[in-house]
Specification:
This protein is mainly beta. It is built from no helices and 39 strands. Strands 2, 3, 4, 5, 6, 7, 9 and 10 form an eight-stranded antiparallel sheet that branches. Strands 8, 11, 12, 13, 14, 15, 16 and 17 form an eight-stranded antiparallel sheet that branches. It is globular and about 85 Å long.
Length: 516
């Protein structure tokens, strides 16, 4: 009997789902409630950019409102779709139906959502493709105000999706049906004792969409004026351990940032551009908050969620600005090339480009080499930051060296008399820790036999132990370590089991050939 033993290389640190980026062909998301959107006549918008070589036929629908728009977007171009104001979830805690927005495309596109102002509040966020959604999330937000609230929205794509939400040591469970959303206000009926959903842990038995932010935040607390902040939170799949935070080009007073822990005993190191550093130990749901005035490098021994905030108008002198929130991806998730659309919803629009210093003199904006004059860098010279004003319209950023990666933050501010601010990343990769499960193809049966025995090294639980202190009991790895296989191809799927369900680590094919 033929026997073949194979060692499968599996490198992992936390939930692993695959390799992709924020370009995709299917998207689903919602616009959470915000302060005064009816009074201020604020409309949600969808900004779609086509980076593919071919034109993209796109369909944008809000089935609950009977809304459909089907633009065709040329290669390298973008379009803006205005949605009805009624597409924004109303300002109430609890279950909401009919607000899900869907974008499908014949070619990979990127999608950004924003609140278009007439006289008031704005922010923007990058939308994740549905194939990159997960089941475990941690939220970012800011503190409650008397009449404006820290908020969290979980939306389901499938019927009977069981969602567990833990905030401040309290856990609730809700069952959502397809396209339903559950909106939570800090301090409301579900969590009356909390004033901030930052660190909220979402655990679902099926992939869900998670949005978090604030209906109108003061940042820092007590500094007017307030503005909506919002972001689609990436799943734990898409978090990393190394982050670079950068000052906004037109601000002189800096920015706020929060580092939010996902696992037990997470040690973070915060290092300023002059090399001054501090270390902090966080438990799951805890966060560290500080102010940065130049480039800040954040390193951690476990994956963390990092949010960067624009500051309130009064703190920046009243000339321009307002709160905004940007979910900052880890440096492990930087992209090679990014196409994006600047919508001009604010008067002053800028980009920050973060790249490895070794390649900082090869960064192109719309095929024009950027100057390194005024460039900033981290204390160790690893990452550099180029900042530039940018006009409304479609743009692309790339590095002249194909092996280099980068991150683009797109943000903007309004000047007097009506202050606004918005910000989001233009796109990033979603390939965290690779799972390498190689196909097994060189198997033959013994002459006259119809089967062969194949064994392999089963993946370990390494890196998953710290989920225990989040209320999850790690049980086992399934997928086996060997067996008898008949002639032909057999797919073996390896999963890790928790109380809430299984996480697929990866699959591989065993191909057996008969021997005469």
């Amino acid at each position: 009997m033929a026997v073949l033993q194979v060692v499968l290389l599996v490198i992992l640190c936390h939930e692993v789902m695959g390799i992709s980026d924020t370009f995709g062909t299917e998207f689903a998301f919602v616009f959470p409630s915000l302060f005064g959107h009816v009074d201020f006549n604020i409309n949600p918008r969808v900004i779609i950019t086509n980076q593919a070589a071919n034109a993209a036929t796109v369909t944008v629908t809000v089935p609950g409102l009977g809304f459909t728009n089907t633009p065709t977007i040329a290669s390298g171009a973008s379009t803006i779709i205005s949605l009805p104001m009624s597409a924004i979830i109303p300002g109430s805690n609890g279950l909401h139906s009919g607000y899900m927005i869907f974008v499908t495309s014949t070619e990979p596109v990127s999608v950004v959502g924003d609140y278009a102002p007439v006289v008031a509040t704005v922010d923007s966020f990058v939308v994740l493709p549905t194939d990159m959604l997960g089941r475990f999330y941690i939220a970012a937000s800011y503190d409650n105000l008397p009449d404006a609230f820290s908020e969290l929205v979980i939306s389901a794509l499938d019927d009977n999706t069981i969602v567990s939400i833990t905030i401040g040591g309290q856990t609730i469970a809700r069952t959502l049906n397809q396209y339903e959303s559950y909106q939570i206000y800090a301090g409301d009926v579900d969590f009356p004792a909390i004033n901030d959903v930052t660190g909220a842990f979402v655990n679902a038995d099926k992939p869900v969409i998670v949005m978090s932010g604030h209906t109108c935040a003061n940042i820092p607390l007590g500094v007017p004026a307030c503005d909506v902040i919002i972001g689609q939170v990436p799943p734990l799949t898409s978090l990393g351990s190394n982050h670079v935070l950068t000052p906004f080009l037109t601000y002189t007073v800096g920015y706020r940032f929060r580092v939010i822990a996902t696992l037990c005993e997470t040690v973070i190191t915060v290092t300023l551009s002059d090399g001054t550093s501090s270390m902090h130990t966080l438990q799951p749901h805890d966060f560290y908050e500080s102010t940065g005035t130049t480039v800040v490098k954040v390193s951690s021994d476990n994956p963390v969620l990092v949010a960067q905030y624009c500051l309130g108008t009064d703190l920046v002198g009243g000339a321009f600005g307002d709160p905004c929130m940007i979910i900052v991806p880890a440096t492990e998730l930087f992209s090679e090339e990014i196409s994006f659309r600047v919508t001009g919803i604010t008067d002053i629009e800028h980009i920050n480009i973060i790249t490895e210093c070794a390649y900082s003199n090869m960064v192109y904006l719309d095929n024009t080499l950027l100057s390194t004059t005024g460039m900033l860098q981290t204390f160790d010279g690893e990452f550099c930051v180029l900042r530039a004003a940018i006009t409304s319209g479609s743009h692309s950023v790339r590095n002249g060296d194909a092996s280099a990666s980068l991150l683009v933050l797109e943000y903007g501010f309004n000047s007097d008399p009506m202050q606004h601010a918005h910000g989001h990343v233009a796109g990033f990769n979603l390939n965290t820790i690779p799972v390498i499960l190689n196909d097994i193809t060189d198997v033959c049966t013994d002459p006259g036999e119809a089967t062969a025995v194949v064994t392999w090294t089963q993946p370990s639980m390494t890196g998953f132990e710290n989920f225990d202190c989040m209320g999850l009991s790690s049980n086992s790895i399934s997928g086996g370590s060997g067996g008898m296989f008949g002639v032909g191809n057999t797919t073996v799927t390896t999963t890790i089991s928790f109380d809430s369900g299984d996480i697929v680590l990866g699959s591989f094919i065993i191909s057996v050939q008969g021997s005469s």
